[in-house]
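Internal tracking record. Fields below are filled automatically when a chain is submitted to the structure queue. Please do not edit lines marked as system-generated. If the sequence contains nonstandard residues, flag them in the REMARKS field before resubmitting.
Queue: standard
Priority: normal
Entity type: single polypeptide chain
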Amino acid sequence: MERNQVEITVTDNGNGIAISPALDIYEPFVTSARNSGHIGLGMYLVHKWVTIALRGTIKQETPADGGCRFVIVIPMRAEVTFGDGRSM
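SYSTEM-GENERATED OUTPUT FOLLOWS
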């Protein structure tokens, strides 16, 4: 990680992500819980916000003791550009 970046780590101790390694969890409509009413857009949207809006990266890890971890790295200062061309 570079000096001018912020790292955000989110970890839980749940069941982890039960998706085939061949599937990309950041693609739309990827879910293992479709029968529970989930449509599989959550991680797709998070990935778009982090990589496009915030110009950062996100990666999913599986801790040795189970659960799931996401590591997000974003610039300390980022110019956000909206779909209509506005920026801040």
